Amino acid sequence: MAGFDKRVNSYAEALDGLEDGMTVLAGGFGLCGIPENLIAEIKRKGTRDLTVVSNNCGVDGFGLGVLLEDRQIRKMIASYVGENALFEKQLLDGELEVELTPQGTLAEKMRAGGAGIPAFYTATGYGTPIADGKDVREFNGRPHILEHAITGDFAIVKGWKADRYGNVIYRHTAQNFNPLAAAAGKITVVEVEEIVEPGEIDPTQIHTPGIYVDRIICGTFEKRIEKRTVRT
C-alpha cells in the first residue's frame, strides 16, 4: 500500500511469526551485507528445523554460523561451504542436510521465485551430479536441466538506507544476494543502517522497491571482515 509505514521498533517484532520448520532466505555473501542482527534474533528465539537459503553459512561464531551451534538449521541450500568448520563437521556427520547449488543457479532460483516464475532451464550443471533426476531438454543444440524457483516463508535482508515505506538502497558489493532474497520472501524483513524521510531517496537509485518489503528496522552493525590482509 502506497504510503504505508513499515518501521518496527524491535527485532522481536521484526521476526514475529517465524516458526519452526519454515524456510528462510538470507542475503549476504560471506560476511558482506549479511543481516547480522536478524540472524542473532533467530538464535535468541531458538527457532528450529529451519531450511536456510543463502550463498553460504557464515563463519564459526558469526553470521548464519551461529545458528549451527544449537542445530537450528535442518537443511542448508547454498553454493559455497566456506570457512565454517562446524558446517563441515555437521555435513560430514550427517547432522545437516546440504543442497549445494551453482552460484548463478542459486541467484536465478531466487530471482525467478520473486518474479513468479516456477522453473527455468539452464545448461549449468548438466553432466554432473547436480543434474541427477532432473528433466533435460535441448536448446540450440545444447542440453539444459530444469531447475525450480525458490521462495521463502521469511526473507532477512541487510540494506544501507531505506525510507519508512520500505524502499531500499544497498551499498556497493553489499547488494549481492540481498535484492534477490527480498523479492522472494513471503514476509520480507530488512534491517538498515539509516531510515530517511520519504523523498530523500532518488527513485532512480532504489534497488528494492517497498512493494517487496513488509518490515523495516534500523540497527547497528559490527560488519566483521572475513579475511583481513595487510602489508607486513
From TrEMBL:
Source taxon at top rank: Bacteria
Protein's UniProt name: 3-oxoadipate CoA-transferase
Enzyme Commission (EC) number: 2.8.3.6
Organism phylogeny: Bacteria, Pseudomonadati, Pseudomonadota, Gammaproteobacteria, Pseudomonadales
Keywords attached to this entry: Transferase
NCBIfam families registered for this protein in UniProt: pcaI_scoA_fam
Gene Ontology BP, a term: beta-ketoadipate pathway
Pathway annotation from the record: Aromatic compound metabolism; beta-ketoadipate pathway; acetyl-CoA and succinyl-CoA from 3-oxoadipate: step 1/2
Top enzyme category: transferase
GO molecular function: 3-oxoadipate CoA-transferase activity
Catalysed reactions listed for this entry: 3-oxoadipate + succinyl-CoA = 3-oxoadipyl-CoA + succinate
InterPro entries for the chain: 3-oxoacid_CoA-transf_A (IPR012792), CoA_trans_fam_I (IPR004165), CoA_transf_BS (IPR004163), NagB/RpiA_transferase-like (IPR037171)
Family membership noted in the UniProt record: Belongs to the 3-oxoacid CoA-transferase subunit A family.
Natural source organism: Stutzerimonas zhaodongensis
